[in-house]
Design brief:
With 207 residues, this protein is mainly beta. The protein contains no helices and 14 strands. It starts with 10 loop residues before the first strand and ends in a 14-residue tail after the last strand.
Amino acid sequence: MPSTNNARGFVEYRHLAGHTTPLTRRYRVKADAISGTNSKLKGDPVTLVSGHTVARYNAGGSAASIAPIGIIRAVYNSDGRPFTHNAPSSGPILPASTAGWVEVNIDPFQTYLINADATVVSTLVGQFTDITANTISTAAGRSGFSLRVAGGVNTATNALPFQVISVSDFERDTLTSDGLVGGEANQDVEVRIAVHGFTLSIDNKVR
């Protein structure tokens, strides 16, 4: 069964090439415009926007037209310091309309675990889909994103950038035949960013 059935964003898992050291880069977050629109937490996907800043990827929203460049590993205040002293009333979170910094795993071949928003069926493996934005946990500093099960397709687009690779190894493998429904809802699945902002062509199209 999953380690938790709570949405918690993207959790670093494996690497398609077998590497174990995350490839990260630190980016600035502005307090205004699209960069400052949403809170940022560990496990959130982000997109690169104007002014060498990043914005949280919006599931089904305006930023969905911009391919994600990676997943946040850590958040920092405007002085580049971690939110160590926010506990216990609040976890590490960079609130909306607040300037700061985020450390982002930008490796296109990194894979992640993410909790599904519904029961996963075998046909979802290999398909491309979006994510669902749920309520964040401010106290824990936990992302609210889960994988959107409905609407999975066989073609990647900027609005459907995440590809399901498999069901998590931590789940009971109940997807042993086509169409067989998994035994539990909200399974963890392994995904990759299939439409990555650093691997697109110059005209921003998927090849």
